[in-house]
Amino acid sequence: MRSNSKFKYMKSVVIIEDQTAVREMVSEFISLLPGYEIVGSFGNGEEGLKGCIKLRPETVILDVGLPKLSGTDVLKGLTLHVPGVKVLIFSGKASSANIRELLSAGAQGYVDKMDGFDEFKKALDIISGGGTFIGPKMASLMRSLILNPDSSSSEIPLSDREKQILQLVAESYSTKEIAARLYISVRTVDNHRTNIMRKLNLHDVAALTRYAIKNELISLA
After folding, report:
1. Fewer CB under 10 Å: which end of the chain, C or N?
2. Whole-number Å distance between alpha carbons of 172 and 209
3. Nearest CA to 65 among 159, 176, 155?
4. What is the mean pLDDT of residues 10-20?
């Protein structure tokens, strides 16, 4: 892995991100920062957790929507098996409810993928130094919810895995394709789909698709 070798002490970092282009871009960016060393990079939650248990990094950059094992489950595993690790959530799909759950589960910070690399670097420096960080987009939303608590009822009442499956359903993936993509059984996908429809009180794929578009889980672009 690439690093800036001018520094005697390098803070070890692992990236867990399923989008190859994003993962490589983040890795390249961190490799240019002074004092950081990328020691591992993984494309799904299961391999990422196993890699972290083996590599024992100081900091983990973690996406929320991951195949095989969700970001929330990875975080719980890190808290259990890699005590003291600092986790920065780097995602574009999490709601404020998700962020509260992730912070409660042990994450030290959150940066939205649209916040830019200046905010990302600030977050990385702060949590690596033992602090906590919430990016401006999510901080604004959470402040709004504190000032207007009734608005929280409009948040998407789904787990990370359910959001993944809803997104794929809305993107016209079949049940078998979703199962293969997420490395879970067809029956598990069916169970999640049933739970999604029950929670949202929706009864067909067209309604799920409209809901996903309205809540920006998928884009028409």
Report:
1. C
2. 9
3. 159
4. 93
